[in-house]
Amino acid sequence: MSNSDSTPLLSIQALHIAFATANRAQVDAVKGVSFDVFPKQTLALVGESGSGKSVTATAILRLLPKTARIAPHSRIEFAGRNLLQLNAAELRAVRGKDISMVFQDPLSSLNPVFTVGEQIAESLRLHLGMSNKQALTRVVELLNAVGIPRPEARLNSYPHELSGGQQQRVMIAMAIACEPKLLIADEPTTALDVTVQKQILELLMRLREQQHMAMLFITHDLALVREIASRVVVMQQGEVREQNTTEKLFAAPQHPYTCALMACRPRLDVRPQRLPVIDDYLTATSDTNQLAAQPQRQRGTSPQDEIVLEVRNLAKQFTLKTGLFAREHITAVDNVSFRLPRGKTLGIVGESGSGKSTTALAVLRLIKANGGEVLFEGQDLLRLSESDMLAYRRRIQIVFQNPYASLNPRFTIAHLLLEPMHIHRVGKDINERMQLAASMLQRVGLPAEALHRYPHEFSGGQRQRIAIARCLTVKPEVLICDEAVSALDVSVQAQVLNLLQDLQDEFGLSYIFYLARLERGEVFF
Amino acid sequence: MNLSAFIIKRLMNMIPTLLGVMLLVFVLFNWVGGDPAYILAGKIGDPKQIANIRHQLGVDRSYWIQLWIFFKQVCTFDFGRSWSTGELVSDVLLSRVGPTLTIMVPVLILETLLATLFALWVSYVRGSLTDRVVMVICTVAMSISFLVYIIVFQWLFGYRLGWFPVQGWADGFLTNLTRYAPLPVMLAVFVSLSPSLRLYRSFVLEEMNHDYVRTARAKGISERAIMLKHVLRNAAIPILTNVGMALPGLFVGSFLLEVFFSIPGLGREVVESVNRSDFPVIKAITVYLAILTMLANLLVDVLYRWVDPRVTFK
Amino acid sequence: MTHATDSAGPWALAWRRFKQDRVALVSLCITAFFLLVMFASYAGLLARNWSAEVAPSYTAPTLQKVTPLANTHEQVGLPQTFTDPPVDISDIDPLTPHYQEWQQLTAQVAKAQAAQATHLFFGADKWGRDVLAKVIKGSEVSMTVGIVAALLSVMIGAVLGALAGYFGGVIDACMEWLYNVLTSLPSILLILAVAAVFSRGFMTIILILGLTGWTGVYRLLRAEYLQHRERTYVRAAEALGASHASRMFRHILPNVSHVLLVQFSMNVVGFIKAEVILSFLGLGVPVDMVSWGTMLAETQEELVIGKWWQLLAAGGSMAILVTAISLFADAVRDALDPKLNE
User: Fold this and answer.
1) Which parts of chain C have pLDDT scores under 70?
2) Four-residue CA torsion sign, C53, C57, C63, C66
3) Residues of A with Cβ-Cβ distance to C244 under 8 angstroms
């Protein structure tokens, strides 16, 4: 990295932000954060969800909602001025011209009713005073620079006509249109596919060099940080835990939280008995060296294993009506076959759109398959009647990806756990069922009092554990996990995976694990 | 699918609905309506006279034949003559549509423009005292019965202040527009402004919560430009849908207005023809209205595609 | 763990949010007050004698004691004011033989009670009836019509909408057809038709409004069920083995009940107002009952001669109640908004 001026381009000093909530209370989101961004350098702001990193970034251009309160002694200095003190007109002159921002979800961040060209040209006309013609030419140049093929044609496209990656490129083009000195990128790749993520990162790095701009990069993924940033700031619960240059941070992390973050990143080459978890590092009750040295788990299957579930030639098509009588067929799943041995875990990997969720739903007959067989201990599930299928529903269960959506918000935890027992007649009476529910909750690491609470009172990881408990109440044999940990934070993922591993050991469950990224799951199989 | 296939499919879907409407009207009239022959004969006719009239009107034939005749009438758009006045039904309808539209079209235009402007303004100052006060005024205004408004407006502007005639209608279009229409139009706009304002305000506020507004701010666009360009263009979609849904109502008009202001419009005609058991007129009005409603819905769906680029035909 | 110290379901949370809105609490109190008055009227505690003639026609509102009407059934006899002994003219008076007979006859006629109107807050109407008593009695009809008709329309619309949205396919197509047919006809026509089938009366209005007013609820609930059908928690319930009925009514219904509640209150408001129009059209309650609608129908001729109090009483009470219910419904909707929950 080149050593540029020693005066920082952007200096955040004692930033303190609180949010007013409905019942007049205040929630502190950012508690006294300070760091500097130097010209032409990239600083990464790293933290898990709830760390306050996005709030900090959004505060720079004062884009926070009205409920946000910034403390009067906080300062955000840019080019000699305190951004927090500017009036509306001065602030508008800075936004989009000196400092630009790229957001996480490109589809919702672009205006759906204006063409892509129009949205980019708007900045050019506003800040650089270009005429329509000049703006259009420049827009084509910009689209080229961000790697969009055939930019002259794409000018008149609407955002929803582009892929996720292309939408993000358009956002980036909009951000660099007026050649800002600082680009703030708030988790720009999180919502995109794995392959596209890499492309966008490379694009950002290339543009950074071309435009000689500084970048503030917000992310939860430490791996990305290493490639793109020269300085790192680690945040947790609204405070800065550690900040340093990238090399020094990775070589010798000082704060326990940083160590924990780095250690909990999954690796392909080791398969410990238990995955390390953030708390292990923060509470210092366990010996962290011992964790690193634990014996590895056995992998693989042998030909003697009994096959509990076998899928043959599964096929599913979706039909769209394209004309009065014409129909278009979209093949989602084509001739998929796999086998699951008892007591083992099978991983199925694919990008979004590869059809893996569709196979999961088809196996359970939540979607009607167009062809193939699903043999459970030799019985073809797809040919059974609804009432016969009911018996098998007990034996093969599913945990969904989104823990916020899979639990009925109007049910208490007790109701959620009792329902499957009631349907499949587990337990003699309600008292026995309540006892079973309580013991199942405790098994997944939640107290029995949780029975009387509602899902919205729990975090994502806890909700996923409740979902697992719900499946376990009927003692299934096969558990399908449809990206069950993808929506969770890194450290929480490890907790849930450890739980699943323990349950497999204890109950002899067989798992089918669907996921999009290899590193997360391979530790598990 | 492409546009023409979509339109054809929708036109074909109209047929079962139209048949249903015809059946419903037929059943309602024959089951529920008073005996027209009895009414025409002045309620004291002797049986022979009544039987004669029934034969003339054609209601002595079996129900199936009557239904078949109805069907043919719909296909040819010829419903014969009114049973009470003897006019050609088509003449009746054509003469009534004019006055109704003279009132309803200005009402729709004025009300949409005013409601949209106010909605934008109120959303701009959202959360402030002005916002709350305006919304409370709207709620109170909506809670007063239409009848009360008519009575008070007629009394105040027509009787007391004498600015407008209390009721009446003339032959000339311009006379009507400038002399007889203003009071009912003003009244109708005043009454329908409140619910529309509330609804459009919710549309605008919904749009203001979207991420693209934050992006526009991040680009340095002024709040005014954001409202008038970015938000309005998006909020126009549900607003226009709402206007589209009101289109069929244009033709029926408000029968209350027409009765109180003595406007010879279609709404009043509906009430009067039901009271007179004038079946040809009732048949014609309902069939025309049903077709117009379905065409208006189709028009709205097609225009929707033009206004919202995300929509494709299914 | 992000939980409150005492567990609260979505309804309890909504109630907490609701309590903080002062306007909402006031409108709840006003609505409750009106309901109380209505029940008191039903029980006969208030306005029992609303149809009694208590004052001269069109008496203006007054807070003073009103002189009672002269009792027309008073005994026929000589005025009481004379102090001189009556002059005896019985020998030339041709009617002399009849006086005694008439006295006997009139003594047999029952005397009507002279109802004393102590104060007339809203004056008297054309027939001398106490307008305030009419307003109170009229609330029975207007509010009951509004509430029961709204209940009926919401139930019909909810069941049909749930079936259409959840099952889709043929059932949905049939419902769509029915919906299109009913909405293609002008509503006034349907109302007149239903009114013609049933004789004039209290239940008729409820039936008219309930049977023609369900379409809005149907549309909304169909859209909700279409959306919720695809949600993960319903998929999860299906994977656990829950039946269709269980999914529709035990799982999805609690999640859309807030929509129903808001629609119900909006329909109550709409039907109270519609009753006025129906009464004006002559389709309202029969003449021996009173409702705010019949009162307002009378006001058209009254206003011209300058008598404004009945308009104020009936129009004003209705406006206050409807405003209170509307504000209450708004607050309920805001408090129950699921987006605020998550």
Assistant:
1) 1-8, 56, 63-84, 86, 110-119, 337-342
2) negative
3) none
